[in-house]
From TrEMBL:
InterPro entries: F-box-like_dom_sf, F-box_dom, FBXL15_LRR, Leu-rich_rpt, Leu-rich_rpt_Cys-con_subtyp, LRR_dom_sf. Keywords: Leucine-rich repeat, Ubl conjugation pathway. Residues 241-287 form the F-box domain. It comes from the Eukaryota. Gene3D superfamilies: Ribonuclease Inhibitor. The lineage of its organism: Eukaryota, Metazoa, Chordata, Craniata, Vertebrata. Residues 743-763 are annotated as: Disordered. This is F-box and leucine-rich repeat protein 13 isoform X2. The keyword tRNA processing does not apply.
Length: 796
């Protein structure tokens, strides 16, 4: 066992893992050096100490007295490893000899090389120096060439960029001048075509006017002789050879559907064939008794309802003072779907009981301004299970408890539209009852409600998430908090008016929470500024915007509004009395609004011809209101060929030229207002009558130079005229006005002098400041006298 070199790996591993060589080494070294008297006792104590302290910290001289420890240079980890043959990497004598030989040879080589370098002198030192100098010179020249080339490359690059920029600039200038040449040629051609078109229109206008004047005398004489004094238009029509009774029933029904109840009854008295035509069942699906409320008797109404009870679908009794028996006869119409009994003073809860029991299929019910109470509110959910539209405006006798009845039985859960205008008795609890009963409401109208607060709105929207349309006119206590509460609804239509607590903050809620909103009416809201318009600019679905009387809006806000995507779809824009608007915003309006149909700029006093000239480029305009502005005669009509509605009232600087241009270019116009324009004469109205044959509405109030001849022209040319207003027309006689009233459906006439706020007298001369003040005092005194007289009459 002198060596374990040939032992098995397991045995060798066992010896190493259990520190057997180290144990033996420590024990033998301790025994050999210390030479104890009782070696066995010494070995026993040493082994016990090793067991207690562990094998990891065991050293070979641990149990030798320090004074007796030998000073031996350590060549291996333990002496016993060599004794047992466990040192695999110990230096052997052969390896020691090789190491000494290698070290000696390396040392000899190093000293020999050093001696050789010192002893042997260099013979080619000059050649080497010259070679190094040559290399250094080449390197220096290369560095210099590199430096110069770098600077040249940078200069060449900058020069190339300058040449490219110059070339691009030249190309841009060339393209610019080319476009200018093309634009000038196009402009010349467009001017030529425009002038040619204008000449053709003027020639056509002159020919038509000449033909009109040549035929005027003959037509006037013939009509005065045969038709005008005695026969109306209906009588003239009846003289013709056309027999309406020969037409198909569908065509006859379509013709008679445009007549009122009174006209239908009158037509039934013409002949037997006409009586049969008026008995077509489809004509009696909708009966409007409100148009004959002062003529129709209760007996006639009852007999009519009894006869057509199976055909009647819609009934209108608005403002009819009927007896209870007559109202009960409504229950005979079992198929009734729409019922309007608003403003009926005799309607009671008992009448509604009969109606509700007999007409369970009603979808639309208008009870506004009646005396119904909670008893009627209890009947609604019991009988009208399919009710969709309910109007309770100005009904003051029902309470919050009545609104709670809407949830009884099957309830009014199909209700979509609800009108609670003027119901000031409703509290927050009442709106909470509405929310619990009618969760499907989509359209809510609450006008003339000074008691309406933000808490009412919060209570309502908690259970009505489908609200899409709200109308709060005359609700001064609604603030921006209401819009925050409405953020949970998908609103599409908002209408407020006369509210001073709404600020720009509400429009921020609109921008974030109502992306699909299409109609916004915020008239007479003094807290709205340009910031509101900036918030509305991202709305892509907005088509109607009404900010009338919002006096703090100016050009900056309107331009920011039009810069957004909202300008593409905007169809109607009302900016009446926005006095800070000027010509700058009109430029942007013409550029960004290709689909604008209706534009109102009434009393925007800073607008001039320069701004209005840009509106000409909006070819989609159908209606424009420029009353109270400082515009000239020919500023816009030449480009507005599709114009249908025009209001230039209270523009005293306008003359006959505007009517002439209107008659030439806007022959499709249907509504015209030139009230407060004292320079308009009969010759202008003659041209209008000759060309604008589709005119339905005409307002010439305050046109003090017009005479009876103008009415003759209107009678002969404007056959479709329906509404005529001619107040303060002193030169028009009462006889002519009376004859004209037989040709139109509605007429307003007064021969008095124009009031002082028109700004001119009865001859059309401008009033001075002193005369205006005097006229105002006279007007106030006359108004005061009228009020005193009216109060005395009431007292009597």
């Amino acid at each position: 066992m002198a060596s374990l070199r040939t032992a098995s790996p397991t045995l060798r591993s066992y010896f190493k893992e259990n520190y057997i060589p180290q144990v033996f080494e420590a024990l033998l070294c301790g025994v050999l050096v210390t030479c104890p008297e009782d070696p066995l006792r010494y070995l026993e104590e040493t082994i016990i100490t090793i067991m207690e302290s562990g094998l990891e910290s065991l050293l070979w001289d641990m149990y030798i007295d320090p004074s007796m420890k030998p000073k031996i240079r350590r060549l291996s980890e333990t002496y016993m490893e060599r004794l047992f043959g466990l040192e695999d990497q110990l230096i052997t004598p052969e390896l020691m000899i090789k190491a000494c030989t290698f070290y000696t040879g390396r040392l000899v080589k190093t000293h020999f090389c050093t001696w050789r370098n010192i002893a042997i002198s260099r013979t080619n030192e000059d050649d080497m120096l010259a070679e190094k100098m040559e290399k250094a010179t080449k390197y220096a020249n290369f560095r210099l060439q590199k430096y110069i080339f770098h600077h040249w490359h940078s200069h060449a690059k900058v020069r190339k960029e300058q040449l490219n920029d110059m070339l691009l600039r030249i190309q841009g200038k060339f393209h610019h001048y080319k476009l200018i040449i093309i634009l000038n040629k196009w402009r010349e051609k467009a001017r030529h075509r425009y002038k040619k078109r204008e000449d053709e229109l003027m020639l056509k206008h002159e020919l038509q006017l000449k033909r009109w004047k040549s035929n005027l005398k003959g037509k006037t004489a013939a009509e005065e002789k045969f038709i005008f004094p005695e026969r109306s238009m209906s009588e003239v029509f009846l003289i013709g050879c056309c027999d309406i009774s020969a037409l198909p029933e569908r065509a006859v029904s379509r013709i008679f559907s445009h007549l009122s109840l009174r006209d239908t009854v009158v037509c039934g008295q013409v002949s037997r064939s006409w009586l049969l035509m008026t008995q077509i069942r489809s004509l009696w699906n909708a009966i409007d008794f409100s148009s004959v409320k002062h003529m129709a008797t209760d007996k006639y109404i009852v007999s009519t309802l009894q006869r057509w009870r199976l055909n009647v679908l819609r009934l209108n009794f608005r403002g009819c003072a009927l007896r209870q028996k007559t109202l009960r006869s409504v229950s005979l119409c079992k198929n009734l779907q729409e019922l309007n009994v608003s403003d009926c003073p005799t309607l009671t809860d008992e009448s509604m009981r009969y109606i509700s029991e007999g007409c369970p299929g009603v979808l639309y019910l208008n009870l506004s301004n009646t005396n119904i109470s909670n008893r009627t509110m209890r009947l609604l959910p019991r009988y009208f299970h399919n009710l969709q539209n309910l109007n309770l405006a100005y009904c003051r006798k029902f309470t919050d408890k009545g609104l709670r009845y809407l949830n009884l039985g099957n309830g009014c859960h199909k209700l979509i539209y609800l009108d609670l205008s003027g119901c000031t008795q409703i509290s927050v609890q009442g709106f909470r009852n509405v929310a619990n009963s009618c969760t499907g409401i989509m359209h809510l109208t609450v006008n003339d409600m000074p008691t309406l607060t933000d808490n009412c709105i919060k209570a309502l929207v908690e259970r009505c998430p489908r609200l899409s349309s709200i109308v709060f006119m005359g609700a001064p206590h609604i603030s921006d908090c209401a819009f925050k509460a409405l953020s949970s609804c998908n609103l599409r239509k908002i209408r407020f008016e006369g509210n001073k607590r709404i600020t720009d903050a509400c429009f921020k809620f609109i921008d974030k929470n109502y992306p699909n909103i299409s109609h916004i009416y915020m008239a007479d809201c003094k807290g709205i500024t340009d910031g509101s318009l900036r918030s509305l600019s991202p709305l892509k679905q907005l088509t109607v915007l009404n900010l009338a009387n919002c006096v703090r809006i100016g050009d900056v806000g309107l331009r920011q509004f039009l810069d957004g995507p909202v300008s593409i779809r905007i169809r109607e824009l009302n900016l009446n009395n926005c006095v800070h608007l000027g010509d700058a915003s009109m430029v942007k309006l013409a550029e960004r609004c290709p689909n604008l149909h209706y534009l109102s700029l009434r009393n925007c006093t800073h607008l001039t011809d320069i701004g209005i000239a840009y509106i000409v480029n909006i070819f989609s305009l159908l209606s424009i209101d420029l009353s109270g502005t400082d515009i000239s005669d020919e500023v816009f009509c030449k480009g507005s060929l599709l114009l249908e509605h025009l209001d230039v009232s209270y523009c005293p600087q306008l003359s006959d030229d505007i009517i002439k241009v209107l008659a030439i270019y806007c022959i499709c116009i249907t509504s015209l207002s030139v009230a407060g324009c004292p320079k308009i004469t009969d010759s202008a109205m003659e041209m209008l009558s000759a060309k604008c044959r589709y005119l339905h509405i005409l307002d010439i109030s305050g046109c003090v130079l017009l005479t009876d001849q103008m009415l003759k022209h209107l009678q002969l040319g404007c056959k479709q005229l329906r509404i005529l207003k001619m107040n303060y027309c002193r030169l028009i006689s009462k006889e002519a006005a009376s004859r004209m009233s037989q040709k139109v459906q509605q007429q307003e006439y007064s021969p008095g002098d124009p009031p002082s706020w028109f700004g001119y007298d009865w001859e059309g001369n401008p009033l001075t400041e002193q005369r205006r003040i005097g006229s105002l005092e006279e007007d106030s005194e006359s108004i005061l006298k009228q009020s005193v007289y009216s109060s005395d009459e009431e007292a009597v």
